[in-house]
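User: Run a structure prediction on this.
Assistant: Running it now.
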Amino acid sequence: MHEKAVKTQLRQVPCGQGVITYQLTRKKVKNVNLRIKQDGSVLVSASPRVPLAFIDDFIRQKQDFILSALAKYKERSELYPHTPKQYVSGENYTLLGRNFRLKVEEAPNESVSSDGVYIILQVKDKENFRRKEILMTKWLKEYQMAVFEELIVQTYASFKKYDVPFPTLKIRTMKSRWGSCQPKKGIITLNSRLIEAPQDAIEYVVLHEFAHFIHPDHSKAFWNFVTMMMPDWKERKKGLENL
């Protein structure tokens, strides 16, 4: 049995503006690929045939781009830290690209609702953290499902003519992607955090995943198809950048 050889190492490259640390993964790829994650990781993949000196020089050539991206992600993390919710009045929630403030009220009947400006959490005991967490988690999950299901139905209307089966929708938290599609199982999975994006950006992600029922890869044919179905997809995708 032959296992797929994938080797990873951490490297540091002195550049004009400082030292850049990157993670190099050796695998069968045609080009030297660079990816910068929001957590500050610099990832490079390259064929085992590419010399280390060439890859280090590639990093030096890209140093302005890399350092700029790292600075942007650092600033964003400082401005919008994903700290655990405390479920107290004044907390901020982002839904469909809009900011909502949480208003916690004591009331005999517990509920969660929104008036378009506030999310109103009514609870018997304002100090009961666990109860507030349960109510808000349930409401947010129901909100996500309602929005995503409606967009699935709307998008499916354009795909029926391609004999695409109506998909099963799943929602879960994903670190590195906004959605995924399993064409053989008829499943589309959406990232729970996608609910923070503007609706037109979510529509792009949903259509993107539907397109995988016809083109399972990210080939030129796939992107041509996406462009045909949604000519402004690049503009819509920008709505995902600040999440």
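The chain has six helices and eleven strands.
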